[in-house]
Amino acid sequence: MNKGKKNPPETGALSPEGRMALSRLAKDLLDQPVNDKWKQGQSQLLDFLVDQATAGIDLSNAYPEAYQLLLKDAALREAFIDLVEAIEAEKAGDLPELPPLDKIDLEFLKAPSRSVEQTGPGSWQVFLRRTAEELRKLYRPRELAYRSAAGVGEANWLSLVREDIDLNQDTSLAFSLELTRTSSPDELGLFASIALQSAPEEKTSIEYLFDLHVTWGSYKQTIALGENYRAQLPSLPIGLIEEGIDLNQDLEISLNFKQRNKE
Amino acid sequence: METDVTIASDILENVLDDLAKKEGGWLVEKIKPILAINLERGRIDTLALSSSTRLDQYVSRLAANYKELSGYIQALQIEKDEALWKELFQQLAKWTYAYLIRKGFQFGPNTLEIAIGQATEASIQLLNSHFPYDVAFDLWCHRLVINTCAKFLRSQGRRASHLPTLSQPFEDFAEAIKSPENPELQVETEAFHLRLNSALTNLAPARMHVVQGYYFHGKDFRALAKELGKSVAAIHSLHFHALNDLRAQLELERVEYE
């Protein structure tokens, strides 16, 4: 740094316009704290902003609020710079060459899938998938070694999904979806439940609204979970499973939920 | 807020009606759920609903991307086509490796191993995330890669990069910066302007050009892009770098790990 080696220009020599320019610049230098929850939602817009900028759109004019956020939030600004510079480097052929990969391991494609995404302030989307193969092992275990639970024919219920999900350092939830016998021999019941674990201060002030979407072959249902975070979904015709129709399909669960303050 | 949403919904309905007439109702039915998610996530109402023209452009682009990419996305996310995944994984690994090198990792097998691990993480994200169809697929993937890598660096106790932010010496001038015309703060304002004016002279030429053009000559970023023969995105990047440099020069860097 050359600090002290140069004589700084006197601001007294600056025109009023020059002073105004310095004031604007100074304001842009002033980082402001950005609400974490809002920031997490907005960070997903980064690709959109970079897309617009690379298309020649001046973000400060077209999206002034988003641009202000970039000016004020150091981490978001850094991610913007990283993304822009990576794209520019790739266009210019300046990315470092990737050493040869011995083999590409795509095992993750077979793993039980799950994602947890914060979709906005105080709202999340959890996506869970059980592959048809996993479900077949559960429902019709051919080899005991692979069984993770008793079949629904032996017990009165079978846990299809049980997942513990951390939302943040204060809150986690345990989601389960269970297949059960019903009074009708032609149908199976589906029960969803969520157990929430929150920091003590959250427990008293915050509640959650859950929407559950279940897709399993031709079975597609959406249901809101009640105050106790439990719900019985419409029954599933047993033929869909006994005839193997839906056992050939992945089970997909999407859980959308929002925080709200208790009144 | 509700009024804004209502207006936005009305405009959106009109735009979708027009699209249905041009392209057919089937496409509208396909993109409606995507639009609903994008709207919920703020991709539309924050960025695109300021005018019906802009919304029309947004929806048209989303529809065009859907027609072009939905088959590919389905093959990746639903059918999990291994041939397509091999090609994509190679690309993700290349971006991940480049990111790590840019952050100071050494060329070689150790960094490659980390890159492969992070490319796998990004792949899992990609497999299960909602593709918004309003940007190029490559750009969306690249953003996932950068988010994944930055998260990894933070988990390792490293910062993704220098993130100069406000520190105590700068806070002393904060009131003067917010209210430069306040006569009671004239001394502080003058002192800060002196330091800032001095710091400006140490900026690299391109960064200096952007700062002078934007703040002192009132030029917009498109004009500056033309002058410097760069993209607008590169000018934004230069602008942010310049602000970071100025913060650093003003000894504002907070030496603190996230």
Please characterize this protein's 3D structure.
The complex is a heterodimer of chains A (263) and B (258). Chain A has 263 residues and is an alpha+beta fold. Chain A has two domains: 17-91, no CATH class; 107-261, Apoptosis, Tumor Necrosis Factor Receptor Associated Protein 2, Chain A (Sandwich), CATH 2.60.210. Chain A has helices spanning 16-29, 36-42, 46-54, 59-62, 64-72, 74-91, 132-139, 200-205, 238-242; strands at 113-120, 123-130, 157-166, 172-181, 187-197, 206-216, 219-224, 230-237, 251-261. Chain A has a five-stranded antiparallel sheet with strand order 1-2-9-6-7. In chain A, strands 3-4-5-8 form a four-stranded antiparallel sheet. In chain A, strand 3 (157-166) and strand 4 form a beta hairpin. In chain A, helix 3 packs across helix 6 (74-91). The N and C termini of chain A lie far apart (56 Å). Chain B has 258 residues and is mostly helical. Chain B folds into three domains: 2-76; 80-155; 168-249, Arc Repressor Mutant, subunit A (Orthogonal Bundle). The radius of gyration of chain B is 23 Å and the shape is extended. The two termini of chain B are 34 Å apart. The model of chain B is unreliable at 160-169 and 252-258 (pLDDT under 50). The chains are: A alpha+beta (263), B mainly alpha (258). At the A-B interface, helix 1, helix 3, helix 4, helix 5 and helix 6 of A face helix 4, helix 5, helix 6, helix 8 and helix 9 of B.
